[in-house]
Design goal:
The complex is a heterodimer of chains A (322) and B (502). Chain A has 13 helices and 2 strands. Chain A is an all-alpha fold and 322 residues long. In chain B, helix 5 packs parallel to helix 6, helix 8 packs across helix 17 and helix 12 runs parallel beside helix 14. The chains are: A mainly alpha (322), B alpha/beta (502). Chains A and B meet through helix 1, helix 7, helix 8 and helix 9 of A and loops of B.
Chain lengths: 322, 502
Amino acid sequence: MRRVKSISDSKRQLITLYLTVLGMYAIPALFSAPFRSVQNATNILNQAAPIGFVALGQTFPILIGGIDLSVGSVVSLTTALAAVYMATSGGIFTGVCLCLFAAAVVGLVNGLVINKLRVEPLIATLGTTGVVSGITLAIMPYPGGYVPSGFTNWWSYRVFGFFPLAFVYFLVGLLICHLILNFTRFGRRVYALGGDEHKASVAGIKVKRIKMGVYVLSSVFASIGGLALAARMRSGDPLAGNPFTLSSIAAVIVGGTSFTGGVGGVIGTAAGVAIMGLLSVILNIYGISPFFQNVLAGLIVVAAVVFNSIRSRSILQAKGRQ
Amino acid sequence: MENRRCLLKMVDVAKSFPGVKALDGVNFSLEEGEIHALVGENGAGKTTLMNVLGGVLKPDSGQIFIEGKETDISNPLVARELGIAFIHQELNLIDELSVMENLFVGNEPVTRKKTIDWRAMEQRSLEILEKLGLDLDPHQIVRRLPMSLKQMIEIAKALVFEAQIIVMDEPTSSLTEGEAEILFKLIKNLKSHGKGIIYISHRMEEIFELSDRITVLRNGSYIATKDTSSTNHDELVALMIGGDPGQHFHKDESLRKDVVLDIRNLSGHDLVKDITLQVRAGEILGIAGLVGAGRTELLETVFGIYPPRKGEISFLGKPFKPSSPRASIKAGIAYVPEDRVAKGLFLDFDLYENIALVKSERDAIYGHTHLPKMRTEMNPVIGTMGIRTPSPRQQVKNLSGGNRQKVILARWVYAGMRVLLINEPTRGIDVGAKSEIYQLLKRLNREGVAIVMVSSDLSEIFGVSHRIAVMHEGRIVAVYDADQTDRQQVLSNMTGLIHSKV
């Protein structure tokens, strides 16, 4: 009995989020015939996959109270590498491995700069963004290249004729992340670190090792998102990943993971992705410029931060009164 | 004592820091099922001794025996493996996690497949909580729990890795009386389970209620170990302060003049309750009290950091409301916080900029200040304050602690003030600079400044102040003329044993 009561806080938040998702789908569907078409549902799911993966990865650094600004550049790099190497060097498998390996290196560099040079994650990952973007443009200055259909078929196949395989992959990724966070020592220590880094280290947790893992994971998931994007575009684009950084942060925050760390999870992030995706489709239907979606993502992030700081200020004041 | 197992024996432990003998031939022992109190004034060496036990500091000499075996505690992890647990004043719980996750953080139980064994975690948490008599849901998030329960969870953590020796450093400092009662029950419970407990506290009544034996340290030296049943409060205080007469400063009574600051029934912050105090021009009023007695909060209320709720303040004969630090500065009240670096100085700025700060902020005309003119004005101030620096253009981060303190004082001297509120004026400052700071305070007295000084160092309180006010749990419990009281009386008031109003 008591148990139910004590977890309900985070559960209630998740229920609210998923009801919001449901409402954002059901209400426009009532009024708009094109919106409720199967084709539209397929499109929404298909578009959700790339940003979904990136947001899953982004959840980890935000959970430890950090952030990864380099995910967008990793997405671009991945599309470029995929488009250049898969067709020319022939191997789809080598291409995928190359993309994931490159992303892991980026994550490793992020982790090293944060751990060894003690640079704030915000600045460290901003720095790598510059480096990675430059390298990407050197590999592929203009959008182009070609992603072989042998690869794209693996993503675009529709289960039962409408359910994109890309989204199935996303669900698998979601499950894996959820299991990592809740059923491994690494995952639980991510939460401990987000709660209080110093206290976590006092408890004997190897803080730096966890951080390293977190940034590598975030980068690798960004790269999987990049592969999903490349499969959808069937080509590479050195700038395609740019909007992903902000949208992934927005999705994570909307999904209830706190910027201060220690609270949240990937189930919430998935809802955040759905909400952001539905929002853009709704805006499209009403003919609002897709650029306005960036404005919206920006506003949501700022609003979330403001909301968070108001809340923590009121917690502080409550402490002062005690 | 009967033939109980000896858990810990520390023999002839010594530890020096540059210029200080922090520990000198200290002996300490602990048996199973014993509560052994460790007492002494601030700086007596209690914390140093516990840091040696915890593997944080390496002793210069001496031996440590754990359950009869000589042991080298080289780092905190070794201490933990040996079954030594520390419960610090500052808790190490992670607010966002549940009770059971806090118990097992860094040591999570896993199944054979290396996944977290939630069921085992819950089961063992329940066992431990039950052992401690705590009716707590292991899934509860820690954030909203009251302080006392958090403290108990911290103790429960010690049981998770089956600690035999539990060190508690001022565990009641942030608890209310009722909460402390519950904690005592739990400590006695641990004792009955055979744990050895080292209990550090300033509060005499707790020590007499709980402990079996008491060891007294003074200035890093081992003084005595007494059976609690065969000693009393007065003997203990005498052992703690020793025959130490304290340093004597020449106090000039003739400087004391009219009341400048008259505080009546001031309340505000929860640690500022019904304060009535008068401060005269040309005197130093020392405020003594334990950590958490409300001394800093009182100063900061008068300076306008915490809003006053009730009571009146009259300043220079006129009613004064400390609505903000800015208002207080305008009126002529200065505040030097304890943490000078964090709250006072801009380390990357030079002396000029640091000293000019208050005055230029206060006197600027339409935001304009005449810096060259101010620099020439500041040069004599820097000289008279005796700040040792190659140049006034030096960045403050290159100065020593004593000189930094002088820079802060210079700032207020330059701006002009009538009342100086100063918090721990010599903490972290070496002996030579200390006496210079005292000289500066005296000089300010001569210029008619009224000084309110908070200090945890009783020698300083007695040495410098004309009058001494003692705070306990947010109230002023006594005010004495410095030459009509002694350390014992003040210490008893600080620890709340006597509630004599004067």
